[in-house]
Amino acid sequence: MSAAMSSGRHPVAASPYEASVGDAIPVFKRTTGLHEWNRFAAVNDEFVSIHMDDEAGRAAGFPGAIGMGRLQWSYLHNMLRAWLPPGGRIVAIRAELRAPNRNGATITAHGVVTAVRDEGGQRRVELDTWIDDEEGSRLAPGSAVVEVPAAPAYIVQADTGNL
Amino acid sequence: MSSEPATTSRISSEMAAAVGGVLSERVSYPVSESDIRRWAIAVYFPERPPREFWDRAYAESLPPGGIVAPAEFNPFAWMEAGDDPPAVKRASTHPDHVEQRLGIAGPGLRFQLNGGMESEYRAWMRPGDVITSVTRLGEYREKRGRLGLMLITMLEDRWTNQAGELVKLSHNSSIRY
Q: Is residue B72 part of a domain?
């Protein structure tokens, strides 16, 4: 997938049951800075100088303090969770942290479906995933696999009701 | 950055021989609903987190039945069951923390960054679960980048719960320079 491609060029699949190869899933977007980083540091015990102090960030070769890779990782999970119906789960996920997010940057998690398989009563959907910033720089390319029951629960209920 | 970029390998023979070694075996305190709520609030901030992470009755009405932790949740933050006294300053923030845990000399690089992660998830983490993590040194390799010769360290981490069920298999890379 080219760096210029954004999920905005793809039709959006509302759920794994509507997903086809090439479909995007709804994005997860956050403008991040010290409020987001401090809260994440508090729950992950991740009080590292480059995430708290502009001078420490510059000493490490960045324009200032930078966000945590683990928080980008959570944003990718948040995007997938929002797309999954009850009973769905994330099976596997991978992200390469190529660049950090700067203080005040708006970053967006994206996903595009690369495969859909129905096996053993489960639907597995594979996706290319990534995070980019408002300049289009790809910060965290990767992939994910999610799984849902092959038939959504509401259809099973409707079928039972018609018996 | 005040130090000169490295041009020669930082992987000593002692480090190479340590590949495959166990860095740590950690046991968490029981996961609590409060831990899960706080994690969810932090990673969804400033929006409200999904209801299934903070409303027990609602979570019980949905599969998988009851509150479960977000898959990426860290049950080892702040204090592990074996910490006595609490580890007020985490050793993992030191760039040589991998080698320190293995009892060998580290490369002495100044900075470290998270290079990426890969996880496979199996059993849910639920309130009351006690998670055991076994972390091994998977691999060292080097790569030239804009910051000079960078040392990439791969760690393999296997999490199980108190029933012996596999919770997570992950591979994490750190970049030191």
A: no
